[in-house]
What does this fold into?
Amino acid sequence: MKYRAMVGLVQNLPAVENDRVMEVNLYEFYFNDAMTLDYQLEFFEEQLLVD
It folds into this structure.
């Protein structure tokens, strides 16, 4: 599938249309060692448990 077609598919997802997408830094989520997983958990807690 070409990139442009992929972008079109992503833009039509309900989460994107409703502005419910989390942007992450690829390098912060690439590894799965203990320190990185702790950071990722903290990130998700901050994003999902909004006051």
Notes: Residues 4 and 42 are 33 Å apart (CA to CA). Helices lie at 3-11, 14-17, 26-29, 34-48. Residues 24-51 form one domain.
